[in-house]
Amino acid sequence: MGNQPATPGPDLLLKTLAEFRYELRRFLLFSECAALEAGLQPQQHQLLLQVAGAPENMAVTIAYAAERLGLKHNSAVELVDRSVREGLLERTADVNDKRRAILRVTRKGKLVLGRLAGSHAEELNELAPRLTGALKHISFNAHRSNNVEAR
Amino acid sequence: MGNQPATPGPDLLLKTLAEFRYELRRFLLFSECAALEAGLQPQQHQLLLQVAGAPENMAVTIAYAAERLGLKHNSAVELVDRSVREGLLERTADVNDKRRAILRVTRKGKLVLGRLAGSHAEELNELAPRLTGALKHISFNAHRSNNVEAR
DNA sequence: ATATGTATATCGTGACACGATATTGCTCAT
DNA sequence: ATGAGCAATATCGTGTCACGATATACATAT
Question: Max Cα separation, chain A?
């Protein structure tokens, strides 16, 4: 028992990072559940979001989707396969460069995506203060981050 | 050719959400790579972080870890198994309640964790402005989020 | 002491991301 | 133009990991 009420201690950075990741995880969990309830696999949701949210002037290819999702090309191909199979996405060969596949969100996909966007915006509004709070703490304590001894 | 320079359009919310998730993914990717380079599976890193970053006065159990990582209990058990096997974590039975397992990060685990904390703080410092920027945009546009038509 | 609940553990299954490799189409130097 | 090299996508086999369902051990209330 006789410990300090809430030792800020030298591992304050660890605590803040843990808190940040916890909030982040909660958001991601919310997002995954929302997607599933809307009938989408979480990753499909992300794919649709990146395809629909890309600048209009650019060709949305598999490689683009892969980079945006932080995936390898082949993983993106499989994800696109599944999404096309379920009528959420449309894949057409590029006319100028027949190697490329151009991706487009179908009407069905846009409908689901629109519904998800609303709830996500709400959730992010609630989450924002806690996230930015943790971020400020981290940047504040980042400088003295070298006193991380293993005791 | 003749399209507006960068149509803000009605799907501005989608664009902002996409950008937010992209930045988020980049951070997560950075974190995963950093963990792997340090010899940890990304999820092990998160486990160690939540165990080490928990308030001192509380007993860190499997259930706590599961909730913090957004996992089911059994997944947390398996994750703990692997981490204990690799000498990163210590699992001891609770004296007061023998059902519970108390988790503690080993010296080895703390060493790796400390190294990772530093680089993460740096990365988050760079990322913070873009993340908070996107968050502000979202909260700003959250109210008019109902004009999401599928065209 | 039994019944109900709680914390952790085990086992089989499925989804998915990946590495390695293949295929098709572009591009550029000569 | 044409073959060599490069770029974009596709295929296949593999391993990891989270999960649901279930089991076990312990606690608590009546």
Answer: 73
Does the domain at A23-150 match CATH 1.10.10.10? Answer given as yes
In chain B, whose CA is at the least distance from the CA of A33?
B70
**pLDDT tens, residue by residue, A4-54:** 444 456 689 999 999 999 999 999 999 999 999 999 999 999 999 999 999
Residue type, B132: T
A-B contacts (CB, under 8 Å) = 164
Please report how the helices B107-141 and A12-37 are oriented relative to each other, as an axis angle in degrees rounded to 10.
50
Q: Give me the residue spans of the domains in chain A.
A: 23-150
Nearest-angstrom CA–CA distance, A111 and A97: 30
B98 beta carbon < 7 A from strand D? yes
* Torsion, Cα of B9, A132, A17, A53 (10° steps): 0
Strand D contacted by B35 CB (< 7 A): no
CA distance B112 to B45: 9
pTM value is 0.90
Decide: A102 and A94 in contact? Cβ < 8 Å: yes
- Determine the Cα–Cα distance for residues A72 and B105; give it in Å rounded to an integer: 33
Distances from the Cα of A57 to the Cαs of A48, A113, B4, B7, B73, in angstroms?
17, 21, 9, 9, 46
* Binary contact (B6, A55; C-beta < 8 A): yes
Question: Under a CB-based contact definition with an 8 Å cutoff, are residues A86 and A78 in contact?
Answer: no
